[in-house]
Amino acid sequence: MNLNDFFTEQPHGSKAAMAKTLGISKTWLSLIIAGKKLPSPALARAISEYTKRKVSRKILRPDIFGV
Questions:
Q1: pLDDT value at 67 more than 90
Q2: What spatial distance separates the first Cα and last Cα of the chain, rounded to whole Å?
Q3: If exposure means fewest CB atoms within 10 Å of the residue's CB, which of 43, 46, 50, 67 is most exposed?
Q4: How far is it, in rounded angstroms, from Cα 66 to Cα 43?
Q5: Are 58 and 66 in contact, with CB atoms under 8 Å apart?
């Protein structure tokens, strides 16, 4: 599952809540969701943990964690 798929199942305000918890801007999170930016390896791990591993760090950073 990618981040876009994850958020289709989440209630309104979930993106803002995730961004705040992870200490990033909503804009940065939106760029990651759109595939225009890659998260750092640490942020990829944090996103994976936040989503309870529904979004794998391998999906977020296949160049580092492999698919």
A1: no
A2: 13
A3: 67
A4: 16
A5: yes
Question: How many domains are there within the chain?
Answer: 1
The domain that holds 52 is classified in CATH as 1.10.260
On whether the CB atoms of residues 60 and 3 are closer than 8 A, the answer is yes
Domain that holds residue 13: 3-65
What are the CA-CA distances from residue 42 to residues 5, 9, 24, 39, 51 (Å)?
A: 21, 24, 12, 8, 14
Read off the pLDDT of residues 4-48 as tens digits, 9 standing for 90 and up: 999 999 999 999 999 999 999 999 999 999 999 999 999 999 999
